[in-house]
Amino acid sequence: MPEANRLQRAHSFRDTAAVLRATRAGVAWMAAGTALGAYENALAYALRREQFGRPIAGFQLVQDLLVRMPGNITASAALCAQLAELQQAGQARDEHSSLAKAFCTVRMRESVGWARELMVTQACTPHDSRAAHHHTTAEEDSDAADHRPTKCNPIIQTGLERAPGLLRPCAIAGT
């Protein structure tokens, strides 16, 4: 192995474990931050997007998704803060950073999933121009309207344009 690819001043597994402890803690913090970003994007979207003449943030199902995310974010941030205190005191062990990484990444994936659910289900409607082919004539549009799906299948979703960094516009395959 080339010297440039070796972990410098690491002469034992104990030295390598110290690096893993620090990087796992960093991953936990990144997961907490990612969950926060997903929540902030979802909240902004829900306040901006209107359905039936009012913001979707006022609908109970959307509120249910929005209220779950801060719990995950708070728990993750609290765990990361506790880990940071242990690190500062020189008391952090492998299991502390492993637990923080595992917990925070699972909570992040859950929160991002809820944010994505909120934004994708609201964007993929039969009359949303991003949810189906763009038709060039009114006749083509009229003919195709009966065949457009009303929901996005998660397998064929490509995301949402309205959530920078999370997803891109939803595309329906085969329409």
Mean model confidence by pLDDT: 74
Q: Could you give the order of strands across the largest sheet?
A: 1-2
Task: Please report the total strand number as a whole number.
Answer: 2
In terms of quaternary structure, what is this? single chain
Q: What are the secondary-structure elements, in order, as H or E? A: HEEHHH
Q: Give the end-to-end Cα distance, rounded to a whole number of Å.
A: 52 Å
Report what the structure shows.
By secondary structure, this protein is mainly alpha-helical. It has four helices and two strands. The chain has helices at residues 13-48, 60-88, 94-123, 138-145; strands spanning 50-51, 54-55. Strands 1-2 form a two-stranded antiparallel ribbon.
Which key features would you list for this structure?
175 residues, two-stranded antiparallel sheet, 2 strands, 2% strand
Please write out the topology.
Elements: H1 13-48, E1 50-51, E2 54-55, H2 60-88, H3 94-123, H4 138-145
Antiparallel strand pairs: 1-2
Helix pairs in contact: 1-2, 1-3, 2-3
Short description:
This protein has four helices and two strands. By secondary structure, it is an all-alpha fold.
